[in-house]
Structures are given as structure tokens and as C-alpha cells.
Specification:
Strand content: under 5%
Membrane topology: Multi-pass membrane protein
Transmembrane segments: 6-27, 52-70, 76-94, 106-125, 145-166, 229-251, 263-284, 290-312
GO molecular function: magnesium ion transmembrane transporter activity
Structural class: mainly alpha
Number of strands: 0
Order of helices and strands: HHHHHHHHHH
Number of domains: 1
Oligomer: single chain
Subcellular location: Membrane
Helix content: over 70%
Main location: membrane
């Protein structure tokens, strides 16, 4: 258990990290919107836009600090509401910075998303004791985990490859759209963003698995005097963490460049938590520790969260499921 003062500091840091991450994602989305409003010849890559760079750095730093203060220190009863609050902050910043309308429908949808997030985050985690590197290797060698990991990786790679192919086709036709194809155009763009965000969340869950494993080894090294960093496999684990962390940042940015944050962030959150749950069940062989009612609560949470997303994204005039981007005439003319 953490001392009361340190516990309070950890909660405050986690909340602050959630606020900063929500602000940073919205800042990046704002930069993408401004850049998309420019003619093709004047558009700039993300790294050449100061606003996007600032948002990216803020998100990355807040993500790292928040993870350090939460993994292994805060109980699920605290982590779940903090994760849900991140979605509330996301809706607030979307209203303030992007001009998204905040109506009764927005309030209802956000409430459903928060409820679903609490259910998923609160019941979708099973506690696991610390392991040595030898224990982790044995867990990785299990045939059931190898088969599971191979299937998951296949679907992630295939899904991302298909998304990239569709995006390339989309880019070739987006400047020759007719008025009749606007709804289809906006839906395709949103679907591409959601696809990148959901698959990126699955990669992020793998980064979390590597981070938890690395933290276990670090705790054993520092507090129990069992140096786990003299083994090459430990550094292979660190390398895997870095690669997956960079990939999830890349695909999250791809997602927010194509889809509104009020839609993408909740689905990303849902995909991440559900993927973390199944990764833990398969990797740590936790099936005997998971109660049937936990699975029911998680499934119900998914239904509630997705319902909230559908409420937010519904537009009666367009008759479409996903939020369309603002008309080009209403977008700012300056790139940020």
C-alpha cells in the first residue's frame, strides 16, 4: 500500500495526465483540421506544424508520466473513474477548441460513454503477482499464448494493411467528390480513422503488457536485489515496448487526423481495455481468476459505451452514423 500522502499525489498526477492527454489530442486534431482546409499544395506534414508538434509532445510526456504513476500503484477502483474522466475532458475540449456543439444528445452520449468506461475499466482487470524473467519466459512459451498472439498479430497486420490500401484509394478520389458523395466520403474518412484508432489501441495494449512485465523486472531488480537486466531477453522486452509504444502513437495520430475525437477516443479506450483484458487472460493464464459476472459487466460496458458513441455521432440531417467534418467553407483558411 502507498502512504496516504503519496497516494494522493499519485491520484492527482494521474488526473492531471488525463487532462493534458485530452487537451493534447484535441490540439492535434485542431491542427489536422486547419491543415486539411488548405489547398493541397499548401498543406504541410504534421512535424512541420508547431501546433501538432506541441500536442504530440504534450501527449507523449503525459502518457509516460501517467503510466509511471499508475501501473502497479493505483487500484482498479481508482483507475476506472480516472479513465472515464479522460473521456469527459475529451468531450469538453472538443466543445471549447473544435467548436463541437454540446447539446442534450452530447450530454446523454457522454454519460453513456463514462458509464461504459467505468464498467470496462473496473471489471476488465485481474490482479497478478510479480514474476521473475524466468517466469515471464515460461508464460511466453505457453502454446495457448503463442497461438493467441499469432492470431491477434495476423488480424492487426491484415487490418492495418487493408486500412492503408483503402486510405490510399480514398486520397486519390477525395478531390473529385460530388455533392451526392459527401455523406459516403465523410463516412469513409471516419471509418478509416476508427480503424487506425482501434488497431492502434490493440498495439497499445501489447505495449502495456510489455510495460507491466518490464515493471515487474524493475521492481525485482531495485527492491529485491535480483538484477533482471543482465539478461539479453530483458532488453528484448524493452525493445518490444519501445517499438509498440511508437507504433500506437503513430496510429493514434493517423486516427485523429481522419476522425472526430469525440468518436475516436471512446472507441480507442474501449478497444484498449478489452484487448488488455484478453491479453492478460491469455498471457498470465488468469481464466480461473475471472468470474463470469466480470465478463458480463465488461460486455455490458462495451454495449453502453458504443451506444454512447452512436448517440454522439448520429446526425438526423445527413442520416449517417458518423460525424462528418465541417464544410470547407466554414473551416479556417490558415494552417496551424
Amino acid at each position: 500500500m502507498l502512504p496516504d500522502k503519496l497516494y494522493g499525489v499519485t491520484v492527482c498526477v494521474s488526473l492531471a495526465a488525463s487532462v493534458i492527454q485530452a487537451f493534447a489530442i484535441t490540439l492535434q486534431r485542431r491542427s489536422h483540421i486547419f491543415n486539411d482546409a488548405e489547398p493541397p499544395e499548401l498543406q504541410r506534414s504534421a512535424f512541420r506544424r508547431p501546433t501538432w508538434v506541441a500536442g504530440f509532445l504534450m501527449y507523449t510526456i503525459a502518457n509516460i508520466i501517467g503510466s509511471i504513476f499508475t501501473i502497479g500503484y493505483l487500484p482498479i477502483v481508482v483507475l476506472a473513474p480516472i479513465g472515464a474522466m479522460n473521456l469527459v475532458f475529451n468531450a469538453i475540449f472538443a466543445k471549447v477548441m473544435l467548436g463541437d456543439p454540446f447539446t442534450k444528445r452530447t450530454a446523454y452520449g457522454t454519460a453513456l460513454i463514462v458509464l461504459g468506461a467505468v464498467l470496462i475499466g473496473g471489471f476488465g482487470v485481474v490482479q497478478e503477482p510479480n514474476h521473475t524473467l524466468e517466469d515471464l519466459i515460461q508464460l511466453y512459451k505457453r502454446p495457448a499464448f503463442i497461438a493467441y498472439f499469432a492470431v491477434v498479430e495476423f488480424f492487426i497486420v491484415a487490418g492495418l494493411a487493408a486500412t492503408h490500401i483503402v486510405e490510399n484509394k480514398y486520397k486519390r478520389i477525395q478531390f473529385s467528390l460530388t455533392d451526392q458523395s459527401i455523406v459516403s466520403h465523410t463516412n469513409t474518412k471516419a471509418l478509416l480513422g476508427i480503424s487506425y484508432g482501434v488497431f492502434g489501441a490493440n498495439i497499445s495494449s501489447q505495449a502495456m503488457l510489455f510495460a507491466k512485465s518490464g515493471l515487474e523486472l524493475l521492481i525485482l531488480t531495485i527492491f529485491q536485489g535480483q538484477n533482471q537486466f543482465i539478461y539479453p531477453l530483458t532488453w528484448l522486452l524493452v525493445a518490444a515496448l519501445i517499438v509498440t509504444a511508437l507504433l500506437q502513437l503513430y496510429y493514434l495520430n493517423k486516427g485523429i487526423s481522419l476522425c472526430d475525437t469525440v468518436i475516436l477516443v471512446p472507441l480507442n479506450f474501449c478497444s484498449f481495455n478489452v484487448s488488455c483484458l484478453f491479453n492478460g487472460l491469455m498471457y498470465y493464464d488468469q481464466w480461473e481468476r475471472l468470474f463470469w459476472w466480470q465478463i458480463v459487466c465488461v460486455l455490458f460496458g462495451i454495449v453502453v459505451l458504443v451506444s454512447g458513441v452512436l448517440v454522439l455521432s448520429w446526425r438526423s440531417m445527413a442520416g449517417a452514423i458518423f460525424l462528418a467534418d465541417d464544410d470547407d467553407d466554414n473551416k479556417p483558411a490558415a494552417s496551424q
